[in-house]
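In the design runs reported in the main text, the only information available to the sequence generator was the tokenized backbone. The following block is the verbatim input for one such run; it is reproduced so that readers can re-run the procedure and compare outputs position by position.
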């Protein structure tokens, strides 16, 4: 099994799975016939099947029993569980993260690479662009761009507001990510708390 990290607080549990197994292996580990059949009938793409299977497996690992992950009309996920009413899911190329919480939550996991920095003007505010442009070395630029993007993804999931604009309505104030793992951000003027974790060449941002 490739469970690589579990984060637990009083109200939240987060599990991260490193994608190594093929679809059939995940089916055997999950061992929930009805859920597997439903995924197979709705998804023909093996990559998407694997993502869904691992997401369901992480839910099962977190709460000790299988729950079907359903989706609201806007695409946001939910499960029928009185204790863990809120769920957030994120995929990177290498990993899948699932958070279950008693309170609203948004998570995002991302690899640190050139992509976010190359595209940063598409999703950053003017003050965020200034923060990036004043950063000297290229790795820190890439890391900062990845943090801004990931934080905005997590906040978007937390806010659950369709059409929320990354480049103007979500703001990540500059902070020293070498020394700070907790930071504040805003969307449409509302303050939210974020937590940053660096896991190898990936970052995880939790917003609540």
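Verbatim output:
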């Amino acid at each position: 099994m490739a469970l690589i990290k579990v984060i637990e607080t009083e109200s939240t549990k987060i599990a991260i799975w490193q994608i190594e197994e093929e679809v059939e292996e995940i089916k055997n580990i999950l061992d929930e016939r009805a859920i597997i059949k439903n995924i197979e009938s709705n998804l023909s793409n093996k990559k998407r099947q694997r993502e869904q299977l691992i997401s369901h497996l992480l839910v099962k690992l977190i709460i000790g029993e299988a729950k079907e992950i359903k989706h609201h009309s806007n695409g946001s996920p939910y499960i029928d569980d009185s204790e863990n009413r809120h769920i957030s899911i994120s995929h990177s190329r290498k990993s899948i993260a699932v958070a279950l919480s008693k309170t609203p939550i948004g998570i995002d996991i991302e690899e640190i690479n050139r992509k976010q920095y190359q595209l940063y003007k598409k999703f950053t505010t003017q003050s965020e662009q200034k923060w990036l442009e004043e950063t000297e070395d290229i790795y820190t630029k890439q890391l900062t761009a990845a943090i801004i993007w990931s934080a905005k993804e997590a906040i978007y999931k937390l806010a659950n507001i369709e059409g929320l604009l990354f480049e103007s309505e979500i703001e990540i104030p500059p902070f020293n990510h070498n020394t700070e793992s907790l930071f504040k951000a805003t969307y449409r003027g509302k303050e939210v708390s974020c937590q940053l974790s660096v896991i190898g060449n990936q970052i995880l941002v939790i917003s609540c």
